[in-house]
């Protein structure tokens, strides 16, 4: 049985807030944004299992479909994004496309309906889109994914290891070996496999970004294995940043807070739980994926040449990073 004491751990959950800005005609975000009122405080979570679908949310999640605007900051770049069909990964894919990058996304086969939506959104920007579904727990697939993405796009210079897995459990006695293995395989081993395959192929100026979590530094008792994996990603970003920096390859991690994605619904969070948590956050609400996309753009672009071996918190004021 999955269990999570949302009321007492709410102080340890986080929101991410970064606002997009530019002059794209589809923008509905003015230049001066009050973060308290940019989105409604209440988020209605659908009742769905793992992995869930982005299109099941009503009202919809904002992954930047209409709100993100671009100015060509990644023109000509070529990005591979895992978990790119929904939530944060979807927001990154949309943002990268609107900044001018070709995009390849990875996702689970059962998430194909969401991936089809991303295809439409990305190709509408006049860049190339490639879909490569598959299970990141498979080492051979991870290696193949990197090589196939590079071949399809004619290069690779941005790798966003974003896909994640989390099963909540407050009792270590009932955490199975299978759960621990899957959590580490998806969150840590896959990132290692992807970077190991990509590093020899990436040209100087490339960027590798891990999606970590605020729980890497402020965990709670229901996330023993998950928090450990997210802390491992921070360490990997730091050590790989030092190792690959001399080759001109920058490695960093982003640590989002609590964000409206399928990641929540597939593990039992309810609308009422989210209300309780949101009420205790500085902005009175959890984050929308579109609010995280700008920092993924900033770290990937060439002007962020001193962003190496660092972890960036996007947590709405929780101060975990």
UniProtKB/TrEMBL annotation:
One Pfam short name: adh_short_C2
**Coiled coil region boundaries:** none
Where does the UniProt annotation place the signal sequence? 1-20
Q: Name one GO molecular function term.
A: oxidoreductase activity, acting on CH-OH group of donors
UniProt-listed InterPro entries: NAD(P)-bd_dom_sf, Sc_DH/Rdtase_CS, SDR_fam
**What family does this chain come from, according to its entry?**
Belongs to the short-chain dehydrogenases/reductases (SDR) family.
Q: What is this protein called?
A: NAD(P)-binding protein
